[in-house]
Design a protein that fits this description.
The chain contains five helices and no strands. By secondary structure, it is mainly α.
């Protein structure tokens, strides 16, 4: 009895082996690429405070002005309250504010301190 296609079977098995090796190599390359992407993403996830997030005197004064501007934008604020808040801001001393309520590391801290200072000044028309 003669055996035919022995070399063909061997070649087919070699192709399967090569295909498995290629798959493993390809899988390893894909994993490396994913790890590189994760590494890039981790680098992007770091927080860097820019100069815009300044908590010095100028930055605090700007944040305080923004806080007050939001209060003054309310149409139901009484004229007396509006005048008191505007007077406070005209004499606002950022250095003194930081010394009394700071140091600040977030805008939320600045807003909380501004609330503590201005809350007694705020009265709305419907409250009278």
């Amino acid at each position: 009895m003669e055996i035919n296609n022995v070399s063909g079977a061997y070649t087919s098995a070699a192709k399967v082996t090569e295909t498995d090796d290629e798959k493993e190599t390809k899988k390893a390359q894909e994993e490396e690429a994913k790890e590189a992407k994760v590494g890039d993403k981790e680098e992007k996830d770091t927080i860097e405070l820019s100069q815009d997030d300044d908590y010095g005197e100028d930055g605090i004064e700007e944040k305080a002005n923004n806080y007050v501007a939001n209060i003054l934008a309310n149409q139901n604020l009484t004229e007396e309250s509006r005048a008191l808040i505007q007077q406070y801001m005209s004499t606002f001393d950022a250095a003194k504010f930081i010394k009394m309520y700071g140091p600040f590391t977030t805008t939320a801290e600045v807003s909380a301190a501004m609330y503590a200072v201005t809350s007694h000044m705020i009265k709305y028309q419907q409250d009278e």
